[in-house]
Amino acid sequence: MELEFYGATGRVTGTCHILRVNGVTVLLDCGLIQGSREDEALNAEPFPFDPTAVDAVVLSHGHIDHSGRIPLLVKQGFSGPVYTQNATIDLCRVLLLDSASLAEKDALYRRKHPFGEGDRNAALYTREDALRALDTFVGVPYHQKREILPGISIRFMDAGHILGSALVEVWLHEGSVSKKLVFSGDVGQYGSPIMNDPDTITEADAVIVESTYGDRLHREIDLTLAELGTIIRKAAEGNGNILIPAFAIGRSQELLYFFSQNYEAWELDRWQVFLDSPMAIEASRIYWNNPELVDENAVAFRNGKTWMPHLKNLHFTSRPEQSQAINAIKSGAIVIAGSGMCNGGRILHHLKRNIQRPECCIIITGFQAEGTLGRRLVEGEKEVEIHGRLYPVRAAVHTIGGLSAHGDRHDLLRWLGGFEHKPELFVVHGDAPVKTVFRNAIQSELHLKATIPQQGEIVKFT
User: Exposed, middle or buried by CB within 10 Å (0-12, 13-18, 19+), for 358?
Assistant: First the structure.
């Protein structure tokens, strides 16, 4: 009975941990590595296990850094089930097909413009691979315990992160040994819009906990919204556009929710708002069609409306030609587009046409991994490369920190404080300095044993 740490140990993205019990192998998540070109090249490296020998995958939620290598796993021979919360299946159908399309387009581009002699210009996986992977998904509702293999049972609890996100309880039995492992996936904020608070779990022998924002506290949501409103009103005076790189799942829905609630106060009637992401548009429909998974305020907001959100100047631009037409608008456009870290997608085309214009502004609303264009903008670089060309950054760049779907240090410690006994904690899914700060906070404030595992490290349960 052992746990091997693999993905999201040396970095934030690419979550994957390996459980071996009773001769079977289970993966906890199988995510895509995101960041710099060098980081993303690691996705094509061999898995440290035989994919044909994996018996099942347990997926905490749909975000691509947790789910994005499942099609590659299937491509290389995995044929078992992928257990996940029901709504995650719907979101993964959107996310994984989009990821495959991007991989195919990237491969086509690199065949014409190779990065170097050793460039691997084959797509990581195709849409056909993604569809085969989706056929292996098995939906499990929240709060339902299920045996998935001999000696392994799971239960999904609400993580409050995005729709369908789960805290994963895993019961392990081998011979006379019984242990309970809890895997946090990504933990949401308490009191966040749309999503419910993370469920409390009281019992565990060991806990794998994320640490994305384990070194800081988010701003109060009221202050964050006040700042966002001020930026939008001030931007209207500059006669430019507002670009908001946003994750298609979670962040885009939150932004539109806030726009609807603050339509008059933020003077949004002066703007045309574009949700320029086919993935975000479809994800919004999925959110809208699962009212049982969102909080009371979101349900009340939904009642009486036929489509979310209720904005008379909102445009859904799913087709490429609709997106291209936005680029002709010199003033009065708020464009919400992917990707959230500016490392691909339609936002790059809008940045190329607006980033040099001082009357425009860019609003960063989510985590930006090291090596991404979004991270370089947050860090204040004066010149950035987009599609092989350098662009001076003259647009104002604003970072709004309080909208994160991830809990901050206080939220994470609050969730860990729900355990009634003293489980051993393993801190993952964070930049190296952040993990150290959070590990120290756990030990000083909760008096729990916490370690930072390295890639390939194995823990045996006895």
Answer: exposed
Give the start-to-end residue ranges of the domains of the chain.
2-216+406-460, 221-399
- In the block, tokens 């490296």 appear at 45
State percent of the chain over pLDDT 90.
Answer: 75
Considering 114-123, 141-150, 248-257, the range whose residues carry the highest mean pLDDT is 141-150
The amino acid at residue 65 is: D
- State pTM to two decimals: 0.89
CA 191 – CA 119 distance, rounded (Å): 46
Q: Which two tokens stand for residue 455?
A: 């890639």
For the domain made up of 221-399, the CATH class stated in words is: alpha beta
- Strand runs labelled E in 318-457: 333-337, 361-364, 383-386, 389-392, 396-399, 424-428, 450-451
* CATH code 3.60.15.10 for 2-216+406-460: yes
CA atoms within 13 A on the CB side of 413: 20
DSSP annotation of 213: B
- What is the C-alpha R_g of the chain? 22
Amino acid at residue number 321: E
- pLDDT band at residue 304, thresholds of 50, 70 and 90? low
Beta-bridge partner residues of 275? 316, 336
Confidence of residue 331 (pLDDT cuts 50, 70, 90): very high
HSE of 350, CA atoms in CB hemisphere, 13 A:
35
Whole-Å CA distances, 28 to 47, 85, 275, 294: 14, 13, 33, 25
Collect all residues with Cβ–Cβ distance below 8 Å to 428 and sequence separation of at least 6.
5, 8, 9, 15, 17, 208, 209, 210, 211, 435, 452, 453
Pairing verdict, β 333-337 and 242-245: parallel
DSSP string, 62-104: --HHHHTTHHHHHHTT--S-EEEEHHHHHHHHHHHHHHHHHHH
Backbone φ and ψ for 45, nearest 5 degrees, come out as: -70, 150
